[in-house]
Amino acid sequence: MMKMEMLSKNQNGFTLLETLIVISVTTIILSFSFFTLKTFATLMQKNMFLNQLQSDLYLAHSYAINREETVTFRFSRISQQYEAVSKDANKAIINKKLPYSIRIEESNLPSFNITPDGNVSNFGTMLLNVNGKYVKITFYIGRGRFLVEEQ
């Protein structure tokens, strides 16, 4: 004969209320982590753009010195991009579009020339809007130095 086992009240398990509480707490914790990841992604995009801009400026500077050519570096507020063009070879060296979250707000330096000896023809500042926060880039006349400041 088969024995039928009866369920006892002492069996271990979770009630519906306990399960709902755990799911609710998990949902709240995950929602906070989503906002943290979004902020982190924005911060990384800004840092990557600023590093890329610095690298491109150094590249244009090195190109001008090594090839003994004048390089024009231009920023465009209308098309939200920057480019470096060799004046002697009439060839584009760099042409980059700014990410959608980064905008050129103000600039008194639309372009400058890097001469074959490495000097920069103009000086000025540029203000970038990065998701509501501002980054100021100051270009100094002379050896092509620049400073990036967060405001």
User: How would you name the CATH homologous superfamily?
Assistant: minor pseudopilin epsh domain
Portion in strands: 25-35%
What would the CATH topology be? minor pseudopilin epsh fold
Number of helices: 1
The averaged pLDDT comes out at 85
Count of separate structural domains:
1
Order of helices and strands: HEEEEEEEE
Tell me the name of the CATH class: Alpha Beta
What is the count of β-strands?
A: 8
**Which outline best applies?**
elongated
Distance between the termini: 83 Å
Structural class label: alpha+beta
Task: Let me know the largest β-sheet.
Answer: 4 strands, antiparallel
Percent in helix: 25-40%
Low-confidence segments: none
Q: Can you name the CATH architecture?
A: 3-Layer(bab) Sandwich
Mind telling me the C-alpha Rg?
28 Å
Spatial sequence of strands, sheet with the most strands:
3-2-1-5
Question: What is the secondary structure topology, with strand pairs?
Answer:
Layout: H1 16-67, E1 71-76, E2 81-86, E3 91-97, E4 102-107, E5 111-114, E6 124-130, E7 133-139, E8 146-150
Antiparallel strand pairs: 1-2, 1-5, 2-3, 4-6, 6-7, 7-8
